[in-house]
Amino acid sequence: MGDGFITLLKAFGFKELHTWIAVISALLFSFNLLGGILTGLMVVNSSRLVQRPLKERISFRLFLLSEIMLLIFVLYYHTFMIETISTSHIIYWCSAVMIMPLLAIIGSQTIQVIYSGRTKAKQEAHKRQQQAERAKRTQEMEQSGGATPGLNPAERAMAARKGK
Predict the structure, then answer these.
(1) Which of 19, 21, 76, 105 has the most CB atoms around it within 10 Å of its CB?
(2) Looking at the structure, do residues 90 and 143 belong to the same domain, yes or no?
(3) Eight-class DSSP state of 81
């Protein structure tokens, strides 16, 4: 794992089970980073350009899962294993809780920056497709004779009300 992380844990006042805390923390941090990366990849490779709601994102679901796992571990560790909690322990656990969503955001934004060219190309293609569909609908409306050609939609609606 690394002596640096174990030394950090000792600085926060953890005297027992340093390796378990280090492994659990590293695993949960990795889950959140991976969730952010997967979310970014899904957005880049999806056919929809609209962002998914927060509840439907992989990174959010992994974040909730890891938060629950962390809370269960903290409760178990401080209730059954050492039976005490100090201010430095609270500071460490609160910082771990705040680091996890930041890692998900970092992973997601990194992928979106890496694939920004692909995303822009998709947006341009989508914009061209929408413009072509609008032009086709406008042409069909003008050809059908249901509206006066050359007028914008508001003028056509006003002309239809007046019976012209």
Answers:
(1) 21
(2) no
(3) I
Question: φ and ψ at 157, to 5 degrees?
Answer: -65, -40
Distance, in Å, from the CA atom of 152 to the CA atom of 159, rounded to the nearest integer, reads 11
Q: Is 45 exposed, middle or buried (0-12, 13-18, 19+ CB in 10 A)?
A: exposed
Q: Which domain holds residue 155?
A: 123-164
Q: Which DSSP string corresponds to 84-129?
A: ---HHHHHHHHHHHHHHHHHHHHHHHHHHHHTHHHHHHHHHHHHHH
The model's pLDDT over 93-104, given as tens digits with 9 standing for 90+, comes to: 999 999 999 999
Same domain, 139 and 164: yes
- Whole-angstrom distance, CA of residue 4 vs CA of residue 16: 16
Tell me the pLDDT tens digit for each residue of 39-58. 889 888 887 767 778 888 77
Q: Are residues 128 and 70 in the same domain?
A: no
Q: How many domains does the chain have?
A: 2
Length of the chain (residues): 164
Give the CA distances from residue 24 to residues 27, 73, 84, 100, in Å, rounded to whole numbers and listed in that order. 5, 8, 19, 12
Residues 144 and 73 in one domain: no
